[in-house]
Structure formats: structure tokens, C-alpha cells
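Quick review question:
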């Protein structure tokens, strides 16, 4: 029934990208700004700031939230474009290898078309917009330690579920 509704509203849909999957990916996107901001706060800390414990607690909470959302997404997203982006994010977050992270950041920056869904329907455009947002956030997250970005230069904006308020495509939270 949900797929029939989406087809009527958005044209042909890749059935693997269900409303639940889109909702879970939206929740992942919403967690990324906190993850990036708290990690950005930690860059360059020497461990002698009295507020360090508070920052560490905030960073750990943001990381835990993002990892939980990745786990939820990856539980239903196998074999989908959104799942591939989630897998890439999970690999970056689990890696301690700067060269591997640089390679994954390069892939997010220069091989985006390998993540995008095919087709020119409205649903494909929505999914591709979500993928672009996530890959932008991945690039920023990977670059935090590199002094590659200015902390003030990047405005991070979390989408609020439902991702498409006029479409009602995501289930209620």
C-alpha cells in the first residue's frame, strides 16, 4: 500500500527504498551535525581544559546516537544506495587509519555518482539529495583533524523528520 501511494505521488520507485528506510536515513542525517560539532570541539584539545570532561561526554553521546542510527539503517538497508552510504559512514567511524579515511573521503567527494540511484523520477531525486547531504557531512567529518575546514565556514543543518514535510513519506517518530 505504501509503495502504491509513493508511485502515485512520485512516479516509479525503487521498492528497496521504502518509507521506513528513508525515515531511518533521515534520522541518521539529523544526528550528523551534533557528531561533527562535538568532534570539532575536541580537535586540538590538550586535555588540560576543565571543560574537557563535558566535551568528551557530549562527543561520546553524539557518537553513540549516530552509531545507533547507523545500526538501525544498516539493519534494513542492505543492497540499497542509502545502505551503501551508511556502510561508508560506519567504516569511517570505525577506522583508526588516516589513509583509509582519506580514501573514503576522496570517494565521497569524487565518486558520488557510484552512490546515486538511477532514474529521473521524483523519488530518485529525493533519495539522491539525501545521499548528497550525507556525503557532504562525511567529507566534513573526515576533514576535522586536517584543519581542512574552518569551524565557522560550514553551516550544518539537520533535516527534521519527516524529510519531506509536504509529502508525508516518513512514518511518524
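Suggested answer, residue by residue:
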Amino acid at each position: 500500500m505504501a509503495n502504491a501511494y509513493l508511485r502515485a505521488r512520485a512516479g516509479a520507485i525503487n521498492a528497496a527504498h521504502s518509507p521506513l528506510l528513508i525515515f531511518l536515513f533521515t534520522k541518521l542525517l539529523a544526528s550528523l551535525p551534533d557528531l561533527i560539532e562535538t568532534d570539532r570541539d575536541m580537535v586540538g584539545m590538550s586535555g588540560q581544559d576543565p571543560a574537557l570532561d563535558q566535551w568528551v561526554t557530549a562527543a561520546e553521546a553524539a557518537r553513540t546516537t549516530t552509531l545507533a542510527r547507523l545500526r538501525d539503517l544498516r539493519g534494513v538497508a542492505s543492497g540499497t544506495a542509502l545502505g551503501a552510504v551508511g556502510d561508508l559512514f560506519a567504516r569511517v567511524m570505525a577506522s583508526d587509519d588516516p589513509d583509509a579515511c582519506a580514501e573514503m573521503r576522496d570517494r565521497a567527494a569524487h565518486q558520488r555518482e557510484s552512490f546515486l540511484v538511477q532514474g529521473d523520477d521524483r523519488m530518485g531525486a529525493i533519495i539522491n539529495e539525501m545521499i548528497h547531504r550525507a556525503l557532504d557531512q562525511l567529507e566534513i567529518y573526515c576533514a576535522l583533524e586536517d584543519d581542512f575546514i574552518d569551524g565557522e565556514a560550514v553551516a550544518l543543518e539537520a533535516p527534521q523528520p519527516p524529510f519531506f514535510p509536504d509529502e508525508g513519506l516518513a512514518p511518524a517518530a
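Why it works: The chain has a mean pLDDT of 75. Residues 19-146 form one domain.
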